[in-house]
User: What shape does this take?
Amino acid sequence: MPNFRCLRPSTGRIIIQTMDVTEWRVGHVGRDMMYYEEFCDGGWRRMPIDGEMLTGRAHHVIYLSWLTFPDWAKGRETKIVERIKREFHEPDYEYQ
Assistant: This one.
């Protein structure tokens, strides 16, 4: 999804610059499931994340070893896991 930035250099003219921005988000579905979504090819694509609700310090455990990356996410597994961990962070989440 392109994003636009307007620049006004000393000439006074407005230059519109296109920036490629990857849109992504994470969220919860029900009690135990989470998801990672990314905007690509004109729509949102979802990847489920298996987890389980906990009653201790962490609210959820996320099973990274169970992640299945769809074709649209292949080759970017490390980046996606970094994003998931950035949003679902300790101490509220733990990973196995």
